[in-house]
Structure formats: C-alpha cells, structure tokens
Amino acid sequence: MSIFSRLFGRKNNLTISSDIKKKDARSRNIAFVDTEVGLKDHKIHDIGALRYDGATFHQASQTALNKFLQEGKVDYICGHNLIHHDARYLKLNGILIDTLYLSPLLFPKRPYHHLVKDDKLMSEQMNNPVNDCEKAKELLMDEIAVWNQLSERKRKIFTLLLQNEEEFRGFLMYVGAIDTDYTISDNFISDNSISADTISDHAIIDVSELILSEYKNHICAHADIPALAAQSPCGLAYTLALIGTDDYQSVTPGWVLFHYPEVEHIIYILCHTQCTDGCEYCNRMLDIHHNLKQLFGYDAFRTYDGEPLQEQASQAAVDGKSLLAIFPTGGGKSLTFQLPALMDGRTIHGLTVVISPLQSLMKDQVDNLADRGFTDAVTINGLLDPISRSLAIERVQSGDATLLYIAPEMLRSKTIERILMARHVVRFVIDEAHCFSAWGQDFRVDYLYIGKFIKEYQERKFGKDAMARNHGQTLIPVSCFTATAKQKVVQDICDYFKHWLGTDLQLFASSASRTNLHYSVIHVDSDGNKYNLLRSLVEQADCPTIIYVSRTKRTRELAQKLTRDGISALPYNGKMDADEKIHNQDAFMSDKVRIIVATSAFGMGVDKSDVGLVIHYDISDSLENYVQEAGRAGRDPHLNAKCYVLYSDEDLDKHFILLNQTKLSISEIQQVWKAIKDFTKQRPHVSCSALEIARQAGWDDSVSDIETRVRTALSALEQSGYIERGNNIPHVYATGITVKNMDEARLRLTESPLFSEDEMQNAIRIIKSLITQKHIAKAQDSEAESRIDYLADILGLSKRDVISSVDRMRQEGILADTRDISAYLQDISDKQRKPQQMLENFAKLERYILEHIPDESLHITYKQLNDNAVHDGINTSTEKKIRTLLYFLAVKGYAHKKEDGVRNLIVTRDKDIETIIKRFERRIEVCRFIIERLYSLAEEISKTITEESNNSSSEEKNPSEEKGLGKASGATDNRKEKPLQFSVVELLNDLKSSNQSLFSDFSSLQLEDVEEALLYLSKIGAMKLEGGFLVLYNAMAIKRIKEPRLHYKQEDYRMLNEFYKQKIQQIHIVGEYANLMVRDYDAALQYVQDYFQMDYHCFISKYFKGNRETEIERNVTPSKYKKLFGILSKRQKEIIDDHESRCIVVAAGPGSGKTRVLVHKLASLLLLEDVKHEQLLMLTFSRAAATEFKQRLMQLIGNAAHFVEIKTFHSYCFDLLGRVGNLDEAGDVVKQAAEMINNGEVEPNRISKTVLVIDEAQDMSKDDYALVSALMKANEEMRVIAVGDDDQNIYEFRGSNSRYLYELTQTEHSRFIEMTENYRSLRHIVDTANDFARNIRQRIKSTPIISMSQEDGEVRIVKHPYEIQEKKVYMYQPILKDVTRLLGSNTSKEADASSRKKNETISILTQTNEEAVIMLALLHSHNIKAKLVQSMDGLRFWNLAEVRYFLKKIDQGLKETKSPIIPDDIWEAAKQQTFQKYASSQALPYLRRSLQIFEQTNRAKYYSDLREFVFESSVEDFCDISKSDIVVSTIHKAKGHEFDHVLMLITHPEHPTDDILRRYYVGMTRAKRTLAIHTNGNLFDSLKSAQHLYDAQAYDEPNEIVLQLSHKDVNLGFSKPHKDAILSLRSGMPLTYHDHCLCLPSTGRDIAQFSIKMKEKLGKWELKGYKVTAARIRFIVAWKSKDAPRDEKESAIVLADLVMKRIKSMG
Question: Which of 153, 1001, 1027, 1589 is the most core-located residue (most Cβ within 10 A)?
C-alpha cells in the first residue's frame, strides 16, 4: 500500500485546483487486470486481477471479475495493452489506463524500462495473470513517478496533445492533469471550459508555442507545428518524447511505428526539413559543411577536376533525393553516403541500410568508421559467428546502429525483415550498383530482388497504397554507387528503379581520370619470364604492392614462391576461410606485410592510400575491373603510382575457360526447373536445400560453388515467373510451454538427466525467451518470434543448439509435444507395403557394407563395392543405395568416409564391429516399428474417410482405378499422398511400451534414436517427412507458379545470355587494350576513355571494324579459333556452328572427315557452346574409337580433354549399374541400364547430360537406341549429335540397324545433314563406290558422294572363274602378283624404296579370318613383310598372360599404398618387370602399345580406369600396323581405316544380302589411290568407272597354309594340370605336333589337345594333301569355365598357329 499512499501524498502537486467539485471527487480506487486469451480459439482461458487494497482475483469468469471490482468500488482499471486487448474480451466499467501506450512516451531513452520489451511485459512466469498484474502495477508506479518529474511545460504539452486520445485519457485523469469531465485542470489552462473531442484552435496555438520554446534548437524553428498537432497529436507526442532524449541512439519501439507510422514523417518534418529562412537548428544540424568538419574533421569536400560532385551528391541525400553517383575507385564514395547517414542518425534516429556484395568490403567500412570513433555502423553477414550475429541484431534493434551493412541475399532473411520493420529506415544505399545490369561486369541475380524488397517493405510498413498516395514514388529514397559509368549500365540502373520504385535517380557522374597513375603493359611469352619480371618489378619498387592473379589457387602458389625468394607476401582470395582472410587483409593494411597476391575479390573498397604498385600477373577480365583494380594504387593524390600488366595472349584463354566453367547455361537452368517440377509433382510447395536441388538436377556434388549456382538458377527462374521463393525454418510454438514459471523450469531442467551444464544454460535462455514473449500483442506476429532461426539469431546460439535443446525439453515435457511431423507414405493402399520392402533391402545391403569394413579401413570405389555386393548375392544393390547408406553412416557417426572426385573411397568404422552392428540392428527394429505404426495410423484414417465418402462417391468409381491399373488418373495418386501427422515423442512412448521387439532395451531409447530411425527412413526413400526438427540444413521454400509442361526458354534466358555475351566481349576488349598499350600509350588511354564515355555500339564499331565484330562474340581468341576451326570445310563448319538444333543427325559418307567433325564439334561444345565437361557424354561402339577421340581431342584442346566422358555404350552402362565392366558379361547390360533409367533407379547426376554425342550411330541396336531414348526422356532439353553412315552398317549379325539412325531424324527439332564430300579417295574409286551403293536397299543418304580430288585414280575388277574342270580356283596367287607389282612399282619409281613404302600403304581385305591367315602365310613365304589385324573368337585382351602379369604386379604394388591412383614408381616397376619377363614374347607389343595409349589418355592413372580400359579393349585395338608393308585384315576389322592401295578378295556369296553389299562397300571405300577387286562372282560387273579384266588362269591353293587355333579348336579342360608349364612358355616359341596334340619340344610333355571340331577340320585339309609341319605359340591366355565355382582358380591355355604344307599334289 505504501506506493499508493506516496502517490496520494503528492495529490496536491497533481491537482492544485482546491475547489474540487463534488462530482469530481471520485475516489482513486484502482485495480489491475490481465487476461489469458487462447491464440487459436480466441476465448478467455484465465483472468487475474489485483486491487488497490491488495486483494487478488484468479479465475476465468467475467461475472466473478465484475463482482470483485464492484466490491472494491474500483473506478480505474489498469493493464498492459488493456484497451485494445483485454478490454475487447471483458466488459469493463471504469476509467481505463493502459501502461503500454505510456511507456514510449515516458521512457523514450535507452536503457528503456526494464519491464518492457517491444510491446510486451517481461515476465518469468507462464500463464500467471496475477503475476502480470503485479508487473503492470510496478510499471504504472514508475510511469507516474516519471510524469511528475517532467517539467511543467512538458506535462502541459502532452496533456494538450493527448487529452482526447482514449489510450491516454485515463492516465491523465488519474494523475489529475485533466478532470473527469475531460476538461483540463485549472492549473493548466485558464479557460477550462474547452470541451472534449478535438484540440481546439486555441489549444493548438498554445501547444505550438509551448513546443517551440521547450524544444528550441532541437527542432526547426519554422516547422508547421499547428498542422501536425491538429492532424496527429499522438504521433507528435511520441516524436517529441524521442526528440527530448538527448541520445540519438534511442529509438521509437517497432510497435509504435507499426500503429503510428506518421511518427517517422513528423520527426522528418521537425528535424530534417531545411527551412528556407535558415534557423539556428537547421544551420547547425542540416548543414553538410558543418557536419563534415564536425564528424570527419575535413574542411572541404573532394572535387573531381574542379567539379564539386561529392558535395552535390551528399546534399542531394540530405535533401531526401534518390541518386546515382559514379565516382572513380578511391573517389571518396563511402563518405558520400556515410555523412548523410550519420547526420540522419543524429537528427531523426534513422537507420541507413547499405547493401553491398562483398563481406570483406563491409567489414572494412565498419572498421574504418570505428577507427574514426563511430561505433554506430554494424554489419550482419555470413562471416559472423552466432554470438556476434546476435549482438549485431541486438544493436540494430536497440538503436545502437545508424548504418547497417548487409549482402543482398540477406534481404530474404526473416530476421532482417523483422528488425528493419521495427526501425525508422531512412535510406537504402546500394553499393556496386553495376550488379543490376547485365551490361555491368558483375551482374548478380540477387540484386534484382532489391527493388522488390524495398517496394514490399514500404507496403508492409505504410500500407499497400503507400506509394500510390505518394504519386507512385518511393517513400524511402535510394542512393546507388558505382565506379563504372558505361552508358548502358547507367541506363539499366535508372530503368530498374523507375520500374520498381517509380523514382528518377539524380545523376552525379565524374568524368575524371586519375592523373597520378602510370600504366604500362609488358608482353611476356612464358611463365618463367613472367615470374622473373614480377620479381624484379617488386624489388625495384619497394612499396605496398598488390599483385592480381585470375585463379584462387595461384594466389597461394605465387605468394609462397615470392616468400621463398625472400620477398614476403601473403595470399588473399574469396575461397579462403574467414579468419585467414581477415588476418591477411589486416596484415597488409597495417604494413606488417608489404605484398598481397590476390584475386579480384580483394580490394573492392579497400582503402589503403600508400599502395604504390599494382601488378596484373594475369590481365583482368574486363576494362572496368582493370581500371578498378589498378585504381587501388595511388589513393593518395600526391603519390605517383605504377600499374603494370604482364600480358600474354594465353591469359585471355584462361578467362574464357574460367567463364565457361562459371557460366550458368540455359540447359543448367532447365535442369533445375526440371528438378523443381520433380519435387512439386504432388503439391506446388516444396522445401529443400540447394544441395538437394543440385542432386535432383543431376549436378555433380564435386562441382565448385554448387550452392551459389543453384541459387542463381532459382533467381533466374523467379525472375521469369516460374517459381516464387520464400523462407522456411521449423517453429517452436510458445503455446506449448507446460511449466508455470522460470523457477519451475529451472528446477525441472536441473533434475533432468538429459542436460549438461551448458545445455541447461541454453535451455534456460530459450525457455525464458519463449515465456517473456508470451504476451502476443496486436503488433506483430507470434510466428516469427518462435521460429528457430529467430531464437538462434537473438540468443546467439547455433540453430543446431536451439533444436537440440528444444528436442530435449520436449522429451522432458517442459515443452508440450505437438504433432509436428507429417509423413507421406508410398502407396498406402498397396498390400505389398513398399516401404517395408525397401527397408529390408537396404538393411541387408547396410549389414553387408558394415561387415565388409575391415578393422583398419576399406579402400574401394563405389562401383567395386557394388559389384562385390551384387556378386555376393545382394541383387538389389546399386551404387546410389551404397552412396545413400554411406552418407547416412557418416552423418550419424557409424563410420568416416573420405572420397575424391572420381568416387574412390576410404571408409573407417568409428567403433568396434559388435557395437556398430548392435546399434544398426536396433535402428532397423525401430524402423520396422515405425512403418507398422504409420500403416495402422493410415488405416484408421482411411477407415474414417471411407465411411464418410462411401455415401458420396459410390457412383464415381472407375473400374480401372480400383485395380490400380497403371497410374491411370492423377486423382488416385493424390489420394495416396495424404500426410500422416504424428509426434516423435508419442512414437517414442509407443515404442517404449511395446513388447514386440526382439530386444529388451527399447526402454532405454531416447528421442535421438527415434529421430535417427526417421531420418534413415526418409533418406532411403521409404517415406517423405516434413516438419519437425529433422530439417537441419538451410532449406528454401519454393513454390512452383508455372505449369509443369512449360519449358524454360531462350527468351527467359535473354538477360543472363546478354550478360554472358557481354562478358565475352569484355575479355576481347581488355585484350585489345593490352595490345594497344604495347604499341601506343596515348591511343590506349584514348581507347579507355572512349570505352567509358561513348555509346557502346559506337565504341565497338570504332575499334572492331568488319568481321572483328563477330570475332569478339566468340568465347576464344581469334588465333585459337583459327587453329581450332580454320581448317574445316563449309559443310563441316555448318555442323560446328549449329548451336540450336535439339538433334543433329549427320549421315557422313566415307572419307568425309567424320572423326574430324566430331572432334571439332566436341571442342566447339566445350569452348563455344557453354557445355560443361561433366554435362557432355560421348558414346562409341569400341574402346579403340573412344581412345582415338580422347587422343585427338587432347591434341586440339589440351588438358581439358581429360575431363570429357567418352565411353563405349557398354562401359557407360556398367557404370550406371555400378558394375565393373568386361566384355564377357556385356550381354544385356545396355538393356538393363535403359530399364533402370526409365524406372528412375539411376542417380540423376549419372545421367544428367545436356549433350549426347554418338559415333557410328548406324551401328545402334534396339537396346542401344532404347538407352539413347531413355537418356533423352530423362533430360528434357538434352541435345543429341549422332554421326554415322547407313551404308557402313555391317554389324547386322549383332543386332545393329541403321533404322535407329533414321528414327533420330524424326524427333522434334531435328536436323539432318549429309556429308558427301570425300577427301580420301580419288575420283574413280568414289564413282565406283557410288555405282555399287545403288544396289543397296533402304538407304538414308540420297546424295551421291563427291570426290574432292582432281586425280582419277584406278579401279580394277579382276574376274576369275569359279572353277576350271571341276577344280576350284583360288584367288590368293593373283593377289600376291598384284602386291608384288605394287611393291615393284614403288621401288622402281623411287630410288629409295623404304621412303616410298612409308608413304604408301597397301591392304588386302578378305571376308573371313581364315582367308586372311592363309594370305598372310603366302606373303610371308615370299618374304613380304605383312601384319595381320588379329581377330579371333573368344580371345579377350585381358586374358593374355602378359596383361595378367602386369595387372598382378600393379595389384601387389597397390596393396601397400592403398591409393586409388597408381603411383608412378609402381607403374614403372610393373612395366619394367613385365617387359623383362616377357621380353621374348611376340605378344608383348600388344601390351606395350596398350600401356602407351593409356598413358597418353589418362593424366592421373586411376586403378579403376586401368581395369576398365583393359577389360573393354580387344586385342586388335593394339595391333600396330604402322611398320609393315602390307596389312591383311577382314573387311570388318578394316572399318575406320584407310589405305593407299586396297586389294579385295571376294568369293561370290550364295545370297548377297544388303548386309553383305554394305560390307563390300566398306571395303571399297577404304582405298585412297587404287582399288583392285578379285572376285569369282558378278556383283561388280556393272560398275562403269572401273577397268574390267578377266583372268582365266587356274590358280591352286598355296602350298603352305597356316591355321590359327581359337578357343573352339582346343580341348580346354586338357590343359588344367599343365598350368605352370604353360606359364613358363612365351608367344612365338615352337611346339611339336603329334596325334592332335601339341607338346613341348624339350620334354615331349603334351600341353594341348585339339577339340573334336578341330580334328574334323584337320581331316578335311589332310584329304587335300596338307599335313602339319610346324606349330608355334601365338598367345598364352587365362581361362576358366563359365560354370566353374567362383573360387576355382583359372587355368592357362595355349593358342597356337599350325603350319600345314602340301605333301603331294592331289591329282
């Protein structure tokens, strides 16, 4: 009671009117009331009251309350937010006093009243209204005390202004400032007959005079106060309260700004509107010169060539104008916005928001201001730890900050939006404003959100029609700053703000160039020279120096190299971690180190005045950047500084490559759009992280900056209206608090075993924050305050800590548990229960993985691990599943994994195997329980739904739906996906009480265990979970706006495309500058000036005349372009230049340069068409072709070729299946892969390609085409380039058909191109082939092939009789004659025969392998050097003894190192040992050649790549035909080769099918100069361009023939016991033949026996008079029967050549 008596003791001070009329003498009996109202049901839950006599009331009854008040004869009822909250629910009789509205009026200064935070009473108790009444009482007493301390004049002012406002009237009566009949007490105004409702004119004049004298020199003396008093007395009162604090960092609370937005306007008029007559206040506070001296100590503003731009721009800002200032780097830009910002802070307590792209830049400016003694600049950015972040937020909220620096992406943060709503934002400053323009050198899609944000911010703050009321203009001005003044950029910035904010920017542009910088460019030709030059420049200068390089990696390399050479230097780049960045930047700024080696990330805004040297080690990628970076030198105008560029043309190529890698192509945005469509199939909203989107889009996780790229793609989609982005974080609702007060919370936390000391402290802070925010006023939404991110931000904890703490409090029951998780189960109606099946499959695989991690660690590739699992009987294993499991095991602390870019893994277990398996089994048990539980939940729900809907929908059912035939209707799909809502704690309790488990220890389960199981189920895809606290990553809320059938189009991409086109031109322009600088200094300076001042198009036409204009649109330097594409023909060029067609089908005739076109097209895709290497896939039909493309591409584009995926169909499919490939198992691997893609079982990043290139496309079979179709379906926008020749399809026997090539020409947007120019063969050969091709049916090409040669060449068709006198004629001898003639002609024409032979190649083509072997023997018997292109059924390269030995040596070497990459020493040792061991082997050259090719095409020798290479190669791939006079081959094996002279041996077929005709066509078109066909049929009779000869001579078979034994020819089992003996032999050794066996000459031991089939074959030869005279080993190979058990060892077999001679002529 004592406070009351004190109060009444002062009664005389309050009402000096001694003659109180009787009716006024109401007692001052007061009661305090507080109600608890339900958030959701809006009903009264509880009421508390406290009477002046100390009596309390606590029950939820309105009637009882009225009675309680009447009993005490209460006149005044007081509460916090009483008038607009409690009084709405309670019918109260009495005069109302509201402490909420008084507190900003009476406690306007920091620290504000301790009981009030925002609009809430601080309370440590939950749901205790009586306690809150105590607080309201304490607050009122303090308010009365402060009122009494105000000067009389102030009391009068407030009374006059507020006497008619319901929020204040009760208080004014209570303190006696006005009488109860609303007239003002006598002591205030002489005429007390003024009546209530509005302030009278008389009072307005009075109050205006009072205000002017009370606030003299604190407001403008000429402000129109009467108007303000009449229009908004409340707003004026609050404003005056704030002005009356002499502390500019005090601010009006956010809720006041929300309800009285006019406060901001009034303070602006009073304190920030310059009067025309100039009063003392305006002259002091609003004068920029006075403030420049006062705040910064400068006497004058900076001028640019005499122009006072800095002063003009600062004045415009102080006058509230929107502006764009273009100042050179180092031109005092910061001061131009800092000065007005600091002035605004001091006059109107305003906040200026500075949006800037670079974190280091913000830190710098904040530090610089702090050095000058200004502590009111704050930055909130990603570099801050949670504590500093929360501190920064607190400072902005409390008014400490007048400048807030943030990055544009922060505008999407809810926390930022909230704290800005609660402050008076006076201006948005946008730094580096060229980022708005696609023509600027640093366009950022984030920037495009700024205008929208400012517009929506104003609408939220001042009402939807705020801008409309202001003539369509922004209420909050903007200032834009940039250092680059290209006209187009300036136009873009102005248009942008006109569009969003309806404002015209006032332009302040300096044209000045810096006169104290001397530029120079030095041409260097090699890196070594460059470095030496750099060193000498640095040594001579000896001053603070910045060295710019283009790659982050190089910053370290160069800094280390310089430091080693005694010149100490530090690196700086954007990818470093924050601490190192800050450390290195500070060291340079404070002169601890003189040299910094940096990327362009360093220095935006870095202000060090004594930098005397800037060296561009790599030239910048644009003139803007160059001028800006060079401009970091000589900031002190009195210092002469030097700027050097060390230039070589290759520098530009580096920029082009870098641009290519960082560019976001249209196809990548299309992939992201497709990913979003995939995610939003069920419902348009989705919440996912950037990484999840990237994975779904099929991007490789190893791509750098993946998150930034996804965000840019999303911004681009948002820009074009495809999606909308929101923010999204889980909530904890304050309504769920179960403890009564903080004491109970502390007690329960202390008793709980779940909290450590630190965790308890966190929990206490969280619960306190939730309890104190319980009073949800009408001002702001409660949602935001209970959000996890908001709690984390204000409490300075990490989100993870908040979540973990909230989780435990739920488990303890301190926070009520809500059903906050929704599960979407697949096919709930399905009897098979897919999730259960998935769980069991995954569990089986997981157990396998866990059991196969040895104690030390597992070194393996995903592919090998999967291959092992499949071989060990886990058929459902895929690489994707293994990756999912290992990711989960790593996240959850079962194992550690390390992996490199090519999926090599090291996995280590975290604990012993028993513990881990136990934990795993327990989790699987929990998972099973959860699935069961959710299914039964679903059944309960569906029962109720069925009952409800049975009545309504019986007539709608459609029989196909009921059985679920396919996905006939979207409706059924949607019915399936109904979310099941449940709570984790509920689940935990169910688990604990269930006894069905095999394990007894469910009782010890924790919440974490259940969440781990839920996470597992969602990771393996058994269910999709939403809500809850499983969301730990930074998710983005995305809403799909456009229909899924719509595609992201070229038109949508226009702006980004424009920007990239611009970037390309920039690189050419800066190159031109460097070249000019070397030639003519003044011309180069003029060039730069023109660049910045002329219209861009005029500039281009002045400096890049004629075809140079197209040159600078290409992503390569002119010299490189010429090197790459200068040699192509017009038709070839057409294919290279087609960047648009979805499908290009090229029918390439023989000799038309098919390989060249493909290789150059690959180069063009990578360099000119924005295709990233990981997005490009080339498929071939043989390993040899893949290797050849890789080699040719390397010659063309260098190292970049290593990253391109060029694979055979089989190899790619083995990859997709996650299997280690080999040709033996390649049967239906392509078919399987196509099915997997169609079923969505392949990870998107394995099949997401934007371009697919197919070589020899005519060889596609049904399966191959199915794979191509599946890839096209999986990648909506994928381009396909297929090259082939339908006339060369000669593999019909293995299912290939050129029909599929034709089908590609029928796809939408496809283009068919015929390449019919033949650069290989002379005229007659081409004409003959054209003639012959007319016999082939169903051709795709219609145009005949044209020879590009002027020479005729020669075609001879030599016809032989089939037999003479019933004796068969053999054509080997006549071919031998031709060969001898050719060799002879070669020799006679040219003295030096060998050189001639080197130039001219001869080939003999046969139809069968046997003919080829006989022909070879005949040549050898005549001492003619010839090589056979080996072809043998069942012979596999990897089975050769030499190959096996080499692989074994590699394996042994790797056992030690466990490295996925084969180290060079192991590689070389293995080679040496193998070459030594097999030195005498004739098969060794195959291995040598294969290793040589592998070394050329693989920069790093990955073991997995070596295996793949070996397993996919054929022996003939490594047949080196370069050193022989003559090559003998079957036509099949000659495909793809060319020879000067071709001789064909054609025995007339019985049925000449198209396949056979195409085969002959292939043979004919191998010839360059001459073609001779020896035949005994009439297929070639009608060819016009050939000479037709008839040779009637009878030729016999050669006397000596050779038979090559293949697997079919030997009894394979026979060799098993002789393995060691066989392995000691070498290819080329002689063997002895007897009785169908081969034995060792030395011991006579049999090591091989012929098969029955071979015995029959020998019998036939013996009948013709031949007999085996010799045998020698051709190959020694490993062999094992297909059906042998897995652990059986292989045996070795010998494949030999048998030499047979004719003994007597058969008569």
Answer: 1027
What's the chain's length in residues?
1707
Q: Each residue of 723-743: pLDDT tens digit?
A: 988 654 444 443 456 666 777
Rg, C-alpha atoms of the chain: 44
Mean pLDDT for 911-936 is: 89
* Residue 1707 pLDDT: 43
Place of tokens 């029918």: 1147
pLDDT above 70: residue 317: yes
For 1338-1342, the CB contacts below 8 A with 24+ separation are: 1338/1554, 1339/1286, 1339/1287, 1340/1147, 1340/1286, 1340/1298, 1340/1301, 1340/1302, 1340/1305, 1341/1147, 1341/1149, 1341/1285, 1341/1286, 1341/1287, 1341/1314, 1341/1316, 1342/1314
Please state the φ and ψ torsions of residue 83, each to the nearest 5 degrees: -65, -45
What tokens appear for 1200 in the block?
């970049």
Please state, in angstroms and rounded to a whole number, the distance separating the CA atoms of residues 1583 and 1575: 14
DSSP 573: -
Q: Are 665 and 643 in contact (CB under 8 A)?
A: no
Question: Who's near 1404: CB < 8 A, 6+ residues apart?
Answer: 1375, 1379, 1412, 1415, 1526, 1527, 1528, 1529, 1542, 1543, 1544, 1545
pLDDT in tens, 860-901: 888 888 888 988 888 888 888 888 898 888 878 888 888 766
Tokens of residue 69, six digits: 């008040």
Strand ranges, E, within 1115-1167: 1143-1148
What single string gives the DSSP state of each residue in 799-847? Answer: HHHHHHHHHHHHHHTSB-----EEEEES-TT-TT-HHHHHHHHHHHHHH
**How would residue 186 be classed by pLDDT, with cut points 50, 70 and 90?**
very low
What pLDDT, on the 0 to 100 scale, is given for residue 486? Answer: 77
The span from the CA of 669 to the CA of 1172, in Å, is 13
Average pLDDT estimate for 511-531: 83
Q: Name residues whose C-beta falls within 8 Å of residue 923's C-beta, 6 or more positions apart in sequence.
A: 1009, 1012, 1013, 1016
Place of tokens 């983005």: 1036
Statement: residue 1264 has pLDDT above 80: yes
Nearest Cα to Cα of residue 816 among 985, 937, 933: 985
Task: Give tens-digit pLDDT for 1114-1173.
Answer: 888 888 888 888 888 888 999 999 988 889 999 999 999 999 999 999 999 988 887 888
**Structure tokens given for 1649:** 């026996």
62: helix, strand or coil: helix
- Distance (Å, rounded) from C-alpha 140 to C-alpha 133? 10
- CA–CA–CA angle 943, 947, 951 (5° rounding): 155
Map 70-139 to HEC letters.
HHCCCCEEEECCHHHHHHHHCCCCCEEEEHHHHHHHHCCCCCCCCCEECCEECCCECCCHHHHHHHHHHH
Q: Quick one: DSSP state of residue 774?
A: -
Q: How far apart, in whole angstroms, are the C-alpha atoms of residue 1691 and residue 662? A: 53
Structure confidence by residue, pLDDT tens digits, 254-313: 888 888 988 988 999 999 988 888 888 998 899 999 999 999 899 999 887 778 889 999
Q: What secondary structure letter does DSSP report for 1668?
A: E
CB of 386 closer than 8 Å to CB of 792:
yes
Confidence of residue 351 (pLDDT cuts 50, 70, 90): very high
Burial class (CB in 10 A: 0-12, 13-18, 19+), 972: middle
Q: Is the pLDDT of residue 1676 over 70?
A: yes
Whether the predicted model's global pTM rises above the 0.90 cut: no
Whether omega for the bond prior to residue 1150 falls within 30 degrees of 0, making it cis, is: no
Q: Rounded CA gap, 1300 and 1279, in Å?
A: 16
Please report which confidence band the pLDDT of residue 1035 belongs to, taking 50, 70 and 90 as the band edges: low
C-beta of residue 1466 within 8 angstroms of C-beta of residue 1453:
yes
**Sign of the CA dihedral 162, 165, 171, 172?**
positive
pLDDT at residue 1026, rounded to an integer:
63
